[in-house]
Amino acid sequence: MLHPDFWGILEEVAHHDISIILRTNGTLIDNIATQRLKDFPIIFVEVSVDGSASHIHDGFRRRPGSLHKDLGWIREIA
Predict the structure, then answer these.
(1) Contact assessment for residue 70 and residue 28, using Cβ atoms and an 8 Å cutoff
(2) pLDDT truncated to tens, each residue of the chain (78 aa)?
(3) Contact 14, 20 (CB under 8 A)
(4) Strand, helix or coil at 45?
């Protein structure tokens, strides 16, 4: 998702009937990205989780609430 043309690349891949697998740490996924991702034929999502408890994951990511946020958008696009 760091690539400046991420969404354009995703569009192009989707037009060629290629399976899409998304691997991410979830940091760049907000409500808008979640809605946009629903438009693509993503067959598998892999998210880095750095601990089974939010204080561990959030501490590692240095972003309070990040585990809760990541689990939320995963449910939305599933």
Answers:
(1) no
(2) 999 999 999 999 999 988 899 998 888 888 899 999 999 999 988 888 888 888 998 898 888 988 888 787 877 776
(3) yes
(4) strand
pLDDT of residue 7: 96
Tokens, residue 50: 């750095």
Q: What are phi and psi of 20, to 5 degrees?
A: -110, 125
| Residue appearing with tokens 């995963």 | 74
Cα pseudo-dihedral 63, 38, 31, 1, rounded to 10: 50
Q: Say which amino acid occupies 7.
A: W
Sequence-distant (6+) residues with CB within 8 A of 55 are: none
